[in-house]
Amino acid sequence: MSDENRIRLISSQPIRGRILDKNGYVLADSRVQYSLIIKPQSVNKSSWEQHKFSISELLNIDTNLIQKKYSDGLKNQQLSVNILDDLNVDQLIKFKENEDNLLSFEIATKLIRNYPYESVAAHVIGYTQPVTESEYKLLSNKGYKLNDLIGRTGIEYVFEDSIRGEWGGEMIEVNSLGKFQRSLGIKPSKQGKDVELTIDMKLQLIAEEVLKDKKAGAIVVMDPRDGAIRAMASKPTFDLNFFSKDFKPEKEYNKLFNSPEKPLFNRALNPYDPGSVWKIVTALAGLESGQFPIHTMLDTKPCITYGSQCFREHNDLGFGIIGYEDALRVSSNTFFYQVGYGVGVDKIHEVSRKLGFNSLSGIEISEQENIGLVASSEWAKEGRGWGEPGKTPWVPEDIASMSIGQFVVQVTPIQIARAYAVIANGGYLVNPHLAKKDVKNFSDKKRIKIDIDPKNIELIKSGLRKVVESGTGVSINYGVSNLPPVSGKTGTAEDGEGGLDHAWFVCFTPSEKSELLIVAFAQNTPGGGSVHALPMAREILKVWNEKN
User: Fold this and answer.
1) If both were cysteines, with which of 80, 187, 291, 387 could 383 make a disulfide (CB 3.0 to 4.6 Å apart)?
2) What 3-state DSSP class applies to 316?
3) Which residues of 193-232 are buried (b: 16+ CB within 10 A; e: fewer)?
C-alpha cells in the first residue's frame, strides 16, 4: 500500500497496428497528434515566468490561460496538464527551434486513427471509438484505459486483440504530499500487429466508383476457388475519419446515425429479394429431386395460374418448349414456376441450404451480417415469423414466388457469391474471408465438397455460359477486348417491402477454371439487371483484365 501511494504512472499510448490490402496499400494507420504540455510539479519556478511569456508570444497563447492551467495543475496535484491540443506543423517547428528557452514545456504525442482512403471499404475496415465509463469497468483488467481506442465494427473490431498493442509508460515517485521526486524508469509501449487483407485496392476502388451513380447497392468481388474477398463495397458509405475527430458536429453525427439512408448499414451482408439470380437454386432442386432430370423440356407460356393469381412470363408470350440451358439463357419465369411447383418448397429449401443460404457465410465481419430467409413449410406452419402457429399456411402463390426468388426468399449479396462459386469451382462451398493470414484462428477456411451431382452443376454452368453468349447477359462483352469467357446471370427483383425493383448481375471468369466472381447489386433501381447491374460488373472485369 505504501508503494502504491508513492508511485504514479504516466501512460504512453501504444501504436495501433495497420490494416493493409493484399499488395501492402495502407487502409488504416495511426496519425500523431501533438500537444503542448507542462508537468506542473517539476516546473522550475525561477524560470517559469520567462518561459510562460516566451511560449505565449511564440504560439500566440493567452498568458492568463497558461497561468490558470499551471496553477490548477499544482493545486490538483496533476502530473501532466495540456496547454494546447493538436499543434500544426508550423507550431511544432517553432517550438523545436526554440525549445532550449522553453524548458518548462514539453511536446506530448497522442495517436489518432487515420484512414487514408476515407470512405473506401469503410464497412470492411470498420472504425474505433473511445472506451466509455461503463465499458471501462469491464475492460480495465484487460489493460484498457478510459478513452482508450477500441474497435467498434469491421476488421478494427474483429482483430482488436492483435491490432491494439500494449500500453507503456513512465513510473514517477512522489512523496507523501504527492510531490514529484524522481523518475523510476520507462516501459516502452508495444505496437499492435498489422492485419493484411485479401482486398485488392485497384478492384476496391473501381467497385466504389461504379456504385457512385446508384442510390444504394453493393458489390462483392471474390475468388471462387477459396473465398478470398477482392473487393466489398456498400453504398451509401461514410468517412471513417469522422470517428477520429475530438469534436463531432451534430449535423455530421445525425447524417451517419439517424439518416433514413442508413450509411452504416453494410448492404453486401444484408438480405434482399434476389429475383432471377435465384433460378439456379430452383433448377438444382428440380435436377436433384429426379422429377425434372437433365433432358427435361417444358412448355413456357404467357402465364400460369397458381391459387388465385396468374403468374406471367416476363415477355408476356412465353418461349415455347425449352430445357434448362435455354430457360437460364432467356431467364424464363414460367419454366421455373413449373419446376419449383413440381418439387415443392422443402426441396428448394434443402438445396438452398447446401449452397449456403439461410446461414452466416463465415466471413469475419459477421456482426454486420443477416442470414436472410429461405421459406420452408415448417416456417409457414410456425407463423412465418409474425403470425400465430397454424394460422399462416403455405399457399400455392408462395411456391411460384419462391421459384423465381421473390417475397419468401431474402438473400444477401455475399450468399449469392457463395452459391455461384459452387457452380464456378465445380461443386465446392467456400468460406468468404477478408484476412490474408488467419490472425485469430477463425473457422477452417478449407472449402467443402457439397452433396450435389457434378453433372447437374455442369448443366447449370453451361446455361450460365449461354446467358452471356446469346442471352440476357450478352452485353457484358461490349467495349471489352481480350476478356476471357464469362458466365453469368441477370436478375430483376420486385422489392418485397414495396419499393422500386432491384437490379442484380452475377458473373464469373474464365468460365472454366474461374479466378474471379462478381456480384453487382443496385437497390431500388428499376430497369433490369442487364441495364443497371451488368455495366457495374463489366467495369470491374475491365480493370481486372488489364491488371492481369
Assistant:
1) 387
2) coil
3) bbbbbbbbbbbbbbbbbbbeebebbbbbbbbbbbbbbbbb
User: Which amino acid makes up residue 474?
Assistant: V
For residue 275, the 8-state DSSP code is G
- Bond prior to 510 in cis (omega within 30° of 0): yes
Cα end-to-end distance, the chain, whole Å: 66
User: Residue 404: which residues within 8 A CB-CB, separation 6 or more?
Assistant: 275, 276, 278, 279, 282, 333, 336, 337, 340
Position 533, amino acid? A
Q: Do 525 and 495 meet the contact criterion of CB atoms below 8 Å apart?
A: no
3-state secondary structure of 70: helix
Phi, psi of 359 (to 5 degrees): -150, 165
Listed in order, strand segments (DSSP E) in 39-167 are 81-84, 106-114, 128-130, 149-151
Q: Residue 332's closest CA among 344, 348, 315?
A: 315
Other CB atoms within 10 A of residue 376 CB: 20
Of 199-213, 239-253, 393-407, the range with the lowest mean pLDDT is 239-253
* Fold designation for 2-196: Penicillin-binding protein 2a (Domain 2) (3.90.1310)
Summary mean pLDDT of the chain: 92
267 in Cβ contact with 220 (< 8 Å): no
Strands 7-12 and 168-174: antiparallel
Find out if CATH 3.40.50.790 is the number for domain 201-255+272-547.
no
Q: What is the pTM of this model?
A: 0.88
CA distance 538 to 474: 11
Report, as an integer, the average pLDDT of 154-160: 96
Q: How far apart are CA 544 and CA 210, in angstroms?
A: 14
Distance CA 476, CA 480 (A): 8
| Among the listed residues 199, 30, 194, the one whose alpha carbon sits nearest the alpha carbon of residue 122 | 199
Read off the amino acid at residue 208. E
Kindly list the domain boundaries of the chain, sorted by start residue.
2-196, 201-255+272-547
C-alpha–C-alpha distance, residues 365 and 356, integer Å: 17
Pairing of strands 7-12, 428-429: unpaired
CB 294, CB 324: distance < 8 Å: yes
pLDDT tens digits, 510-534: 999 999 999 999 999 999 999 999 9
Tens of pLDDT, residue by residue over 415-454, are 999 999 999 999 999 999 999 865 444 445 678 999 999 9
Is 254:240 a contact under the CB 8 Å cutoff? no
**Alpha carbon of 360 to those of 152, 271, 364, 419, 448: distances in Å?**
20, 12, 10, 13, 15
Q: Count the neighbouring beta carbons within 10 Å of the beta carbon of residue 269.
A: 27
Q: For the residues of 471-502, what is the DSSP string, one character each?
A: STTGGGGTT--SPPP-EEEEEEE--TTS-SPE
